[in-house]
Amino acid sequence: MIRVELPAHLRTLAGVSGDVALDLPADGPAPVTLGEALDALEASYPVLRGTIRDHGTGRRRAFLRFFACKEDLSHEPPDYPLPEPVLSGREPLLVIGAIAGG
Amino acid sequence: MTGVRVLAGTRKGAFVLTSDGKRDKWDVSGPHFAGWEIYHLKGSPADPDRLYVSQSTGWFGQQIQRSDDGGRNFLSVGNEFSYDGIPGTHQWYDGTPHPWEFARVWHLEPSLHDPDTVYAGVEDAALFRSVDGGQSWQEMSGLRNHDSGSSWAPGAGGMCLHTILLDPVNEGRMYAAISAAGAFRSDDSGETWRPITKGLRSETMPDPEAEIGHCVHRIAMHPERPDVLFMQKHWDVMRSDDAGANWYEISGDLPTDFGFPISVHAHEPETIYVVPITSDSLHFPPDGRLRVYRSRAGGNEWEPLTAGLPQDNCYVNVLRDAMDVDSLDECGVYVGTTGGQVYASADSGETWSAVVRDLPSVLSVEVQTLP
């Protein structure tokens, strides 16, 4: 199970409180990737399509960042394997809105 | 007619203001979608309980919300706005080619007849349509693919398609206006388009009378006389008596002819309203006095409407989608300001009062006259 922590506005949009749990295997033949986790998130919550990654290009939206285990994953490719503490659910994958604007 | 519902889009959410026919006591609900920019929300003329909302932020992009119960509950519907084919380029501020990139929906125009059909004007300028209640969107690419499309350039606020008018009389006729490309008309339900800018003059353009490049701010029509159009251009208030084929200036004795919105009285097709703004670099009313101006002669002769509006130290703006009218027996007029006030007049503009004073900056005001 992977836990994803969303910004407040996306939690409201998705109708969830707290972390989102995604049923992805921690012990599959290959580690779950960043892109697969986001695919699973959007499959579980279709309303989030286009809010984190652009429709069409799949690129991360400019004012969002991805973090996990104190590492910035924002510039990693979609096939980047998530770290073991995220795969095991001990650490969340963080989707963070940039601190900007008012 | 039982009352009115005023739909206010703001920088930080949507608000629904309702009143009975007297329009002196108001119920305010909101903020809906708190924290999101609500560029526009509008009800279906065919089903007043059907509302469409454009919800966006720079962080999370575009959402479209739909209500089927007059704004009590909302449902997220489709938010994918993909340009048709390979979109190519338009002109950037510096004159270089720039790829078309979707930014947001500025304006939603529900069909006059079908609650499930709705048009969306977007930035970068294009027209989209949904025929399934907003679940999916298809570009009506005949507009963007007009021969002039690659030469369109953004105004200071971005290259937005902000005005969509549906002709209730002439089958298949519709209008779109784009900052800063100009105004366009289709006579075949949006398949093909032609510029309708003859008579417009914009001194800031290399050729002031060029067909393309005018910064049209808003166009309005009276539904019973759709061949007559009124336009607030960047500078100049204009009129056309032939469905946009020719325009002439009706700024007349206005204190300034810069402004954003323009509206037509619900029952008097020759009565129109504008909100003069000092200039393109001073986006506030002249002399710190918020005055709605009314012409009962179809233009040229204007009178200031001030009773109940702030006449001292007022430096708000009224944006292009932030004025509307109701169609009760005594026409109501509504204005939303960037200072967060929504002013209402229940007597065609003679007297005004604030429905709310401290909303976030108001981006749009749409009024539904409830059956």
Radius of gyration of chain B: 19 Å
Q: Could you tell me how far the N terminus lies from the C terminus of chain B, measured between alpha carbons in angstroms?
A: 5 Å
Unreliable stretches of chain B? none
What is the CATH topology classification name of chain A?
A: Ubiquitin-like (UB roll)
Decide which structural class fits the backbone of chain A.
alpha+beta
Give the number of DSSP strands of chain A: 5
How much strand of chain A? 15-25%
Number of helices of chain B: 0
Q: Which structural class fits the helix and strand makeup of chain B?
A: mainly beta
Written overview of the protein:
The complex is a heterodimer of chains A (102) and B (371). Chain A is α+β, with helices and mostly antiparallel strands and 102 residues long. Chain A has one domain (2-97): Roll (Ubiquitin-like (UB roll)). Helix content of chain A is 22%, strand content 19%. In chain A, strands 2-1-5-3-4 form a five-stranded mixed sheet, covered by helices on one side. In chain A, a hairpin with a 2-residue loop joins strand 3 and strand 4. The longest helix of chain A is centred in the middle third of the chain and has 11 residues, at 34-44. Chain A is globular, with a radius of gyration of 13 Å. The N and C termini of chain A lie far apart (35 Å). By secondary structure, chain B is mainly β. Chain B has one domain (3-370): YVTN repeat-like/Quinoprotein amine dehydrogenase (Methylamine Dehydrogenase, Chain H). In chain B, 0% of the residues lie in helices and 40% in strands. Chain B has strands at 3-10, 13-20, 27-32, 37-43, 51-57, 61-67, 75-76, 89-91, 97-99, 104-110, 118-123, 126-130, 138-139, 160-166, 174-179, 182-186, 194-195, 216-222, 225-233, 237-240, 248-249, 262-264, 272-274, 292-295, 303-305, 323-325, 333-336, 342-345, 353-356, 362-370. In chain B, the strands form eight sheets. Chain B has a four-stranded antiparallel sheet with strand order 3-2-1-30, with no helix packed on it. A four-stranded antiparallel sheet of chain B has the order 4-5-6-7, with no helix packed on it. In chain B, strand 12 (126-130) and strand 13 form a beta hairpin. The radius of gyration of chain B is 19 Å and the shape is globular. The mean pLDDT of chain B is 97. The interface between A and B is medium-sized, with 20 and 14 residues.
